[in-house]
User: What shape does this take?
Amino acid sequence: MAEVKPPRGTGRAGAVMWRSVTGSFELEAHELQVLRQVAVVADRIASLDGVVDRDGVLLGDHAHPALVESRLQRVTLGRLLAVLRLPDLEERRPQRRGGFRRAYQLRQVMGDGA
Assistant: This one.
């Protein structure tokens, strides 16, 4: 498997995420585009967490805006990773629902004669 370097400008957190995924899986071009966004979001989370570490979780009586945005970025990160549909390398638990690719393949096979 050839090494795929992180995109130029990727920060530390994004590069760690990039290397973790590309070191274990061979991705197609469209999946690399999603992984680029994963790296951007990972860097953004690290930056926001640095602001919260510096300023604290509260700004006056309310949650620090960087804390709120960090939470939203974590949701985005989870969704982007779900789009990649990376298998669990340790196979601790089986997948509970069928994948989209499998469903499409079944329709394709059954679609001609059904």
